[in-house]
Each structure stands twice: as C-alpha cells, then as structure tokens.
Design brief:
The protein is α+β, with helices and mostly antiparallel strands. The chain contains 16 helices and eleven strands. The radius of gyration is 29 Å and the shape is globular.
Length: 411
C-alpha cells in the first residue's frame, strides 16, 4: 500500500455544510407528494426561482431549524447543502423572496390540508374518531397597523404590551395537525369553537367523532350547540365545579385507579346539563404542586402583611387609609391563589400616630376545605358508553395539541 504523508498544520476545512437533515426533509417532501401538489397549484411566471421550490425550502427550514425568514436567508441556508439539493443560487434567496413565498402559499390552505389528510390516511392509517382542539396566541413587535386581527388580549406569552393574534389548532389523537384558524387577538377562546368545528366538518365531513377541548373553550351555549348537532365531546370544567361535589372529593370510596398516582370517579350532574356525565379526577403529583404553590403564596401574603402591620405601628405621622387599603389590594392581587384564605381589617386607630391599624387572620377552616380539592379537576362528557378511565385518557391527550404549539413557538 502506498503511504501518503500529510502535513496536518497545512490542512483546513472550508465552508462545512449540513447535509443529512435537509436531505431527509426533501425526501419526506416527495414522499408526501408535495412537489406534485405545488407544481399543480402554483403557476410558473417570470420568477428566477419557482414558487414550489420556495415552498419546499421554507418547509424544510421549518422542519430542521424553526426560525425567522431573516435568519433562514442570512444565516441558516448558507450552513446547509439545501440550495445545492434544490438547484438554486443561494445568493438569490433573501428575506423578501421568502415572505412572498409565504404569501403564495396562504391561498392554498384549504386544498393543502385536504391533500395532507389524504396522504396521512394512506401512510399512517390516521383515524379521526377523536379530534383535539386548543388555542394559543402569538404576539407582534410593533403596532401591526396593517393587520386588523392584531389586537391586545390575554397573552399566553406574558406580553400584554404587544398586539397578538390567536391561533386555533386541531390535531388527531396521534398529534398530527389537521387544520388551523387565525382569530383576532382579543377574541375569547370559547367564541372560536363554532368556527373551527364547522370548518373541519365542511372539509372532512360530519363523522361520528369526539371533540376534546380544555376548559377555556367551555360555555353552556357551546355545549348545547354541540349536542344539538349530534356532536360528542370531552371537555374540562372550571375549578368552581369542584365546590358542588365536596362530599365526593372527601369520600375515599368509589374511585378507580387509572395509573399510578391518578384516580377518577363519576359524579351526578344537574338535570339541565343535557344528560352529561361528570368525571372527578385526582392526581397526586398535581396535588403536591398545588399545595406547594398555595403554601408559597400564603407565606408571601403573611410576610407582606407583617411588614405593612409593623409600618403602621412604627409610623410617626398619619398614614392615608386609602393608601394602606390599596397596598393590601396589591398584595392580594399578586398572590391571588391564596388571597381568599385571609380575613384582613384596616381600621382607624386614634391612639397611634399613624392613625391606622391593620389586623389579619388566616381562615384555617377554608384552607382545610381547599386542601381537599388540591390535585382535583373535573371533566364533562356526553359519551355515555365510555368508562371514567377512558374519558380521562381521552382528555389527557390534549397534551398532543400543547406539544404541537410548543414545536411551533419554540426558538
């Protein structure tokens, strides 16, 4: 064998690029026959790069490294072999061309969802007997004057200072996205349900399916509308529903174990609920978490009230009663989870220089009652042939929607 000597200090790598992930993305693109779909639906004009090629580039980028169009154009693309695989000049891929590519794709939304549904059915045997629906929000930097749907509302991103839109996503029990809708940022979640359900039924038929939704979607009007249309559902219930069933929560009998640390039981509902069933659930992990959070808020309230009390005792000049009451209000507002456990009095005290006395006590009885509901939540369904364990397992699959949201919104 011939031996070749190499001077290592004279060897260097130049422009190393990623290949495997983008090659796989292009392979999946063709397996889903998206190349044929876009070539049929996107007309070729005088552009240097066909719009169906831009669609493939955008999709593979979202698969491999979700990021902004600016990052794709100025950084990510040049670190991959995708431009070579697609046969395009990467110098012609800029932010403006990527955004215009998105504009070309938007009118194909309905046709694309129908195409993907057909491919998923063939490739994965997807079943649509259960559809899960949830809503998230995404915010904009700037005033977004050109987008009438951009409004200020409840921000799940903790950015109430920014305008936002709400995104409703429907996925199958396997977590495959089936459809989405964009709503104004100030629209209540419950007001999106009819639009989404009717949209799915218009595209895929009104099959005998079950809808799974979180408690934010629930209103009596929505549930009545679902029942009137012969639709079935499993939905979360507000925490206040637990107050009606305190005796059952305290009763140790009649529970069914569905997995380690989780038990469930049926409860009777009022006759005006259309014959729905209520399932009470208790989770050990959730109970520990809620108890720890409540203890933290109780400690914060007691510490803040103690400091306020000492301030009123030591003050050498009169304090404003309104000012002290506003401070108490701020303390309770910051620690809402435990605010109801306290009885607080702000009284006039002529014998003190401050003129104010603050006294408080913790309601031990109410705290004990709250402890019985720690880790508990309620589900409601009109599917009468399921066991309480099946109802619980169906509702828990809403985490598939949350996982899809996290994948969409992560950096």
């Amino acid at each position: 064998k011939e031996v070749v000597q190499i001077r290592l200090n004279g060897v260097k790598l130049e422009r190393v690029r990623r290949f495997g992930d983008v090659w796989l993305g292009c392979k999946l693109w063709r397996m889903a026959e998206l190349d044929d779909f876009f070539e049929r639906n996107l007309a070729r004009g005088g552009e240097d790069i066909p719009w169906w090629t831009m669609a493939e580039l955008l999709t593979v980028a979202r698969l491999c490294e979700p990021s902004s169009e600016l990052h794709i154009a100025e950084d990510w693309l040049r670190k991959t072999a995708l431009a070579d695989i697609l046969g395009v000049d990467e110098e012609k891929i800029n932010e403006d061309r990527l955004y215009r590519g998105l504009d070309k794709l938007l009118p194909l939304k309905t046709a694309l969802e129908a195409h993907l549904k057909a491919k998923w059915e063939g490739l994965f045997g997807i079943q649509y007997d259960l559809l899960l629906y949830d809503v998230t929000s995404t915010y904009f930097e700037g005033q977004a004057k050109g987008n009438p749907q951009a409004q200020r509302g409840h921000s799940r991103d903790h950015r109430p200072d920014c305008k936002q839109v709400c995104i409703g996503l429907v996925v199958t029990r396997e977590g495959m996205p089936l459809g989405y809708e964009v709503f104004p940022g100030n629209l209540n979640d419950s007001k999106t349900v009819k639009t989404v359900v009717e949209g799915i039924e218009a595209r895929y038929g009104k099959a005998d399916r079950v809808w799974g939704m979180d408690r934010g979607m629930v209103s009596e009007d929505n549930l009545a509308w679902l029942r009137e249309g012969g639709r079935r559902y499993v939905v979360g219930q507000p925490k206040s529903e637990l107050k009606k069933h305190g005796a059952l929560l305290e009763d140790a009998e009649g529970w069914t174990k569905v997995r380690e640390g989780v038990i469930v039981r049926y409860a009777e509902m009022a006759s005006d609920t259309g014959g729905d069933l209520l399932v009470l659930c208790r989770s050990d992990d959730r109970r520990e978490k809620e108890a720890a959070m409540e203890a933290l808020f109780v400690k914060r309230i007691e510490g803040a009230l103690g400091r306020l009390q000492r301030r009123c005792q030591r003050a050498t000049k009169p304090l404003s009663s309104e000012q002290v009451q506003r401070q108490i209000g701020r303390i309770l507002e910051k620690n809402q989870r435990a605010g109801q456990l306290f009885e607080i009095r702000c009284e006039a005290a002529p014998e003190r220089p401050s003129g104010i006395r603050v006294e408080w006590r913790r309601d031990e009885e109410k705290q004990l009652q709250r402890a019985h509901s720690h880790g508990c939540y309620a589900l409601r369904t009109n599917v009468r042939e399921w066991t309480e364990a099946e109802v619980w397992k169906t509702y828990i699959q809403l985490t598939q929607v949350e996982n899809a949201f996290r994948a969409h919104k992560s950096e």
